[in-house]
Amino acid sequence: MTSTTNPNPRILGTGIQEGLLLKPVTYPWAYDLYNQAVANTWFPHEVQLGEDLSDFARMSPDERHALTHLMSYFNPNELLVNKALAFGVYPYVNAAECHLYLAKQMWEEANHCMAFEYVLETFPIDRAAAYESHVTVPSMAAKEEFEVRYIKRMTEQTLDISTVAGKQDFVRNLVAYNVILEGIWFYSGFMVALSFRQRNLLRNFGSLIDWIVRDESLHLKFGINLILTVLEENPDIATEEFAAEIQDMIIDAVAMEEAYNRDLLPNGILGLNADYINTYVKYLADRRFEELGFEPVYGVANPAKWMAAANDTLELVNFFESINTSYEVNARA
């Protein structure tokens, strides 16, 4: 019988009989994140959203448009992340502790989808219009097409994870869904969503977003640690050309988010406008560049310092050179 233990463990692989033993844990950072995720378990209906209905009734048309626009984007993309995980990450990872975390993350993405359904059920939002927007609004559709392009490479084409090209595709998918979708685009939307509460509106909705952000911060930590581990174990994939490609992916993503935010806030609300949010997007992108070991590109200050606790993930070292093997789980101050 084939052994279920591996004397030289690697985080990537497709062996069905590998990764069947949890202890001893090979990647403690993944096991720690799984335990944190379990401790964070929550359910949408624990929040009394109905108490926010009076706020919704007195919101301006532009404010209601912004909330609907956010639901249009968040709802389908939580499920899109699950496809990226189920087809583009889980099958190519061997470690049992990573599988535990990914299973919990997939449940969390489903829970977030149900949370946004709860919002749509509670507030008098045109559900059909909200659902259609992710394909009919060009800026929103462009973001989805970007993500689908990378996920399709993992799901609809043959991917040989033992090759340099296959491993690079794996990392591209992680950057697309984890660093960009979850780490920049989602956080941009979270800032707008939480801005309502900053103006004493939709306070319970804000609590729901808080819980989602808490989950997403762990998703981001897991994804970045996974990227670093793959690079540490496979240094041959970290070429200058690949580094430049990763940087260009993030720069392109910032441009797409800028266009999206102009559609989100065509006239400005709550003291916010698209330029303000897009400065925050560039700040987020610089943070992700730094966490991956690159130099900042935009050099802007955080315009929403009240979001600082949500922004912080890990203090990491160079993406392609000095890979840190002492991964920290807790966010930095």
Give the topology.
Blueprint: H1 28-39, H2 53-57, H3 61-88, H4 96-122, H5 127-136, H6 138-155, H7 164-198, H8 203-233, H9 240-264, H10 274-291, H11 308-311
Word description of this protein:
There is one protein chain. It is built from eleven helices and no strands. The protein is an all-alpha fold. The protein has one domain (28-32, 47-311): Ribonucleotide Reductase, subunit A (Orthogonal Bundle), CATH 1.10.620. It comes from Microlunatus phosphovorus (strain ATCC 700054 / DSM 10555 / JCM 9379 / NBRC 101784 / NCIMB 13414 / VKM Ac-1990 / NM-1). It catalyses: a 2'-deoxyribonucleoside 5'-diphosphate + [thioredoxin]-disulfide + H2O = a ribonucleoside 5'-diphosphate + [thioredoxin]-dithiol. Provides the precursors necessary for DNA synthesis. Catalyzes the biosynthesis of deoxyribonucleotides from the corresponding ribonucleotides. Its cofactor is Fe cation.
Distance between the termini: 49 Å
Helix/strand order, N-terminal first:
HHHHHHHHHHH
**What is the fold-level CATH name, i.e. the topology?**
Ribonucleotide Reductase, subunit A
Q: CATH superfamily, please? A: Ribonucleotide Reductase, subunit A
Q: CATH class, please?
A: Mainly Alpha
User: Structural class, judged by helices and strands?
Assistant: mainly alpha
Give the mean pLDDT: 84
Give the DSSP E fraction (strand runs of 2 or more residues). under 5%
Q: Return the domain count.
A: 1
By CATH, the architecture is named Orthogonal Bundle
Largest sheet: none
What is the tally of helical segments?
11
Total number of β-strand segments?
Answer: 0
User: How big is the Rg?
Assistant: 20 Å
Which descriptor suits the 3D outline? globular
Contiguous runs where pLDDT drops below 50 for at least 5 residues: 1-7, 311-333
Share in helix: 55-70%
